[in-house]
Amino acid sequence: MDLPTFTQDDFHVFDIDGLEPRMEAIREKIQPKFKALGEPLAEQLSDLTGNDMFLHIAKHARRKTNPPSDTWLAVAHNNRGYKKHPHFQVGLFDDHLFIWLAYIYELPNKKEIAQLLLDNQDQLEKLPNHYAVSLDHTKKNARTLEAMDSEELQKSLVRFRDVKKGEFLIGQQIPHDDPVLGDGDKLFATIMDTFSHVQSFYDKTTQWHI
C-alpha cells in the first residue's frame, strides 16, 4: 500500500493569501493525499468498529472570503455527512497534523454524549498522557492530558455538555517537523493506533447514531 507523507510544502499552503489561491493549493496538494490516506483508513475503521465507515474530505464550501486555516479528512459511519455524528479526523494546521475522535457542536445528541463521557472520565484519564483535548475544532490550541488535572477535564466535558457551541475532540497533535510525517507506513500506524485507543469512546457514543 502506497501511503502518503506530509512535507513542509504541504504545511506552507496555509501561507498562501486569498481564498481561491489557497483552496486551489489544498485541492491540488492536500486533497489527493487525504484520499490516498482516507480510503485505507475507512477500511481499517470499518474493521475496527464493526460498521461500514465512509471517507469525507472537507470542501470548505461555506467559505466566501476568508481562506481556511486548516483542512481535514473525516471518517464516519454515515455516507452522506459526518458533522452530526461522532467521527474520526485527520488534518493539518500550518504547524501540525491532528488526529482526533471528534464531537462537534452539530451533534443532535450532544448532551447525552457529553454526559456519557463524563460518566467515563476515569477511562479518558487512562489514555496516554501526551494525548490532547481540543474544545474547538477551528482553533489550534489544545491541552495534553498530562497538563490537565481531573477537575479541568471535568470542566471541559461539562462545557461540551452545557454550551451550545461546545465541542470535545481527543487524540494527538504531531508537529510539522516530526519525522513520522515523512514515513507513510509509520504515520498510518500512528493514526490507527490513536484511533484504536479512543475506539471504546466512539463505540459508547454511537448508540444514538447507528
From TrEMBL:
Cited InterPro entries: UPF0637, UPF0637_domain_sf
Pfam families in UniProt: DUF1054
Cross-referenced SUPFAM superfamilies: YktB/PF0168-like (SSF142913)
Domain of life: Bacteria
Signal peptide: none
Family: Belongs to the UPF0637 family.
Cross-referenced HAMAP family: UPF0637
Protein's recorded name: UPF0637 protein EPH95_05180
Protein's organism: Salicibibacter halophilus
